[in-house]
Amino acid sequence: MALDMTKYRAVFLEDATEHLADMSRALLDLEKDTEHADAIDVLFRMAHSIKGMAASLEYDSIAEVSHVLEDRMQEIRSAGGVDGTEGLTLVFKGMEGLEAMIEVVRQTGESPPPNPDLVNALATPIAPAECQKKKS
Q1: In terms of C-beta distances under 8 Å and separation of at least 24 residues, what long-range contacts does 20-23 make, across chains too?
Q2: Of 77, 80, 90, 124, which is least surrounded by CB within 10 A?
Q3: How far is residue 37's CA from residue 47's CA, in Å, rounded to a whole number?
Q4: Is-contact 83 34, C-beta < 8 A?
């Protein structure tokens, strides 16, 4: 008997939408204070949660984008913040990409195609000048 994925997809879409809203609020907080530890943690946790949910439903392209976004957030978290706009722009691009991919699932019920350009952009470590502890 095949598993009916409709219920699981609905839960995924609801949770992913909430996580993206949380990420959006956290990114606004991070723009105001580039060392906002709580905002950095929220961005990391939400990317991690979307990655896990997507992987469990075999939405591999969403899991891949979430994974590299999570890696960048870990980099920012380890550095204690983000300097400049490059890191913030990268996080925003990742969130936009996830939103578009999740919308594909919402519209088609299928996993979106891979997005190697976004993955490659997110996989590039943030320049040290953009991601470092600020000197007192």
Answers
A1: 20/46, 20/50, 20/95, 20/98, 20/99, 20/102, 22/46, 23/47, 23/95
A2: 124
A3: 15
A4: yes
1, 14, 51, 52, 68 from 119: Cα distances, Å: 36, 24, 13, 17, 7
Model pTM above 0.85: yes
pLDDT, tens only, 67-120: 999 999 999 998 888 877 888 899 999 999 999 999 999 999 999 999 999 999
Contacts of 114 (CB under 8 A, 6+ apart): 60, 61, 64
CA distance 102 to 112: 8
pLDDT, residue 43, reads 96
Distance separating alpha carbons of residues 53 and 5, to the nearest angstrom: 13
Q: Is 9 exposed, middle or buried (0-12, 13-18, 19+ CB in 10 A)?
A: middle
Complete domains list, the chain, with CATH = 6-123 (1.20.120.160)
